[in-house]
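Retry 2 of 3 after timeout on previous attempt. Resubmitting structure tokens to design endpoint.
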């Protein structure tokens, strides 16, 4: 049996493997039909299991801690948040050549949020601000002890400096290199978060929001959950919202100038990273990241 320290080669994941893992480790759900979710995210292969469950298996070593982190924290967070979040029901162990922990969660019905449906919705902007406000206010009894946990540590925006400058040089013919450089240098020189650390989602973009009947219904994929500077969660303002709702969102969340600039920096850095990695092979990602970058530049 492999362990979490298995090297980083990407394992082959197919329905036969998932069937064996589920039937062996969770016999109460043996035989429930499996349906591949496509497209899924870049971190996990996802199968729907029956009508009420989903199976998520990390694709790469960078995601191997997410199953246990979500299993620990999402049940505690869920009662405090105004939108539905996934509820893990089991964490599976490595087996059958698959090297990492994996998870089974409750299935959430809904469609992935789209710019076409929600970009101009001030109501959605307020709902998202309320969600982040509730998340930031979450204070479990043992909260002070969590701040130092490695799996919840915030990654500073400055860690992306070298890669972002290289990305700006690489895509300078597609986007405004001077404007990107000015924004990035401003973000790098802006004062950091100087208040007590708060919880953040860590990957708060359009693809991790679900809608039902045209309304926001759920937030998914908490693999980046952590404690520290919440500026990274402002990415949603640039992946989803048009100018008016973006202003509404900022006002409802009460974001100061320095945090907003850092949020624009996060949107630029992550947009560039995804654009370089996926745009050439995925038109959907190309459109999404182009919007994210241009909106971050617009402010």
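Retry 2 succeeded. Sequence:
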């Amino acid at each position: 049996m492999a362990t979490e320290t298995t090297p980083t080669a990407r394992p082959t994941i197919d329905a036969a493997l998932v069937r064996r893992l589920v039937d062996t480790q969770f016999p109460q759900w043996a035989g429930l039909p499996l349906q591949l979710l496509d497209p899924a995210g870049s971190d996990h292969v996802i199968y729907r299991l029956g009508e009420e469950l989903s199976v998520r298996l990390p694709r790469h070593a960078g995601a191997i801690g997410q199953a246990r982190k979500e299993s620990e924290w999402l049940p505690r967070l869920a009662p405090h948040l105004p939108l539905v979040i996934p509820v893990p029901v089991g964490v599976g162990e490595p087996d059958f050549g698959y090297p990492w922990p994996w998870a089974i969660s409750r299935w959430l019905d809904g469609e992935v949020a789209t710019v076409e449906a929600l970009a101009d919705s001030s109501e959605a902007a307020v709902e998202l601000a309320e969600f982040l406000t509730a998340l930031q206010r979450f204070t479990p009894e043992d909260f002070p002890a969590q701040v130092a946990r490695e799996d919840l540590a915030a990654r500073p925006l400055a860690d992306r400096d070298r890669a972002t400058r290289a990305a700006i040089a690489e895509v300078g013919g597609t986007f405004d290199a001077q404007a990107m450089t000015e924004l990035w240098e401003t973000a790098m020189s802006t004062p950091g978060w100087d208040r007590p650390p708060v919880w953040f989602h860590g990957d708060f973009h359009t693809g991790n929001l679900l809608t039902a009947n045209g309304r926001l219904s759920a937030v998914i994929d908490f693999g980046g959950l952590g404690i520290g500077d919440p500026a990274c969660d402002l990415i949603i303002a640039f992946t989803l919202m048009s100018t008016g709702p973006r202003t509404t969102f900022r006002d409802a969340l009460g974001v100061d100038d320095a945090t907003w600039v850092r949020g624009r920096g996060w949107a630029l850095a992550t947009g560039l990273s995804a654009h370089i990695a996926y745009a050439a092979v995925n038109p959907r990602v190309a459109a999404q990241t182009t919007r994210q970058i241009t909106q971050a530049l617009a402010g």
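Attempt log closed. The CA atoms of residues 42 and 59 lie 8 Å apart.
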